[in-house]
Amino acid sequence: MNYREFLNVWHEQRLVGRIWHDIAGFIGFCYESDWISDGGFMISRSLPLREGEFPPEDKVAHNWFANLLPEGEMRKKIAHERKLPDTDFMLLRELGGECAGALSILPADQEPVESQQYEQLTDRDFSDLVLRRGHPYIDWSKGYYPRLSLAGAQL
Q1: Which residue, 71, 55, 62, 76, is CA-closest to 3?
Q2: In whole angstroms, what is the distance from residue 40 CA to residue 33 CA?
Q3: pLDDT > 70 fraction of the chain, expressed in percent and rounded
Q4: 37, 44, 70, 94: which could join 153 in a potential S-S bond, CB 3.0 to 4.6 Å?
Q5: What per-residue string of b and e applies to 81-91 under the rule 16 or more CB within 10 Å gives b?
């Protein structure tokens, strides 16, 4: 795996493996050897637990990880608002810490936080949050982000 950038895939505080992308933008994946040897589980039937890479050109890993992302207008809005290229890898780098389910996808220099922190909302903030439910526009400037994964956020 000789690529410039990779992301770590975590289950709680354990490193599961890494993803990276090739020049065409396709995502590859490999399990961490400690994950395999210490009783880790396969994250998907399409990505069975094994040593070695699921290379980007096979598109098996790409298809599975890309499926964690929102689709359609919501995807375009996120890429635009965050000033990101609309590529699967870049969106996973930005949103992967909030995947539904047990996995987090984070940049190589980050680790998952061990404890949850809550922020108290003012009555006004709570009201604004309720009023936006189901509305296609999301006020990103206030830091309220929808949970966008698995089936995707579709409008």
Answers
A1: 55
A2: 10
A3: 80
A4: 70
A5: eeeeeeebbbb
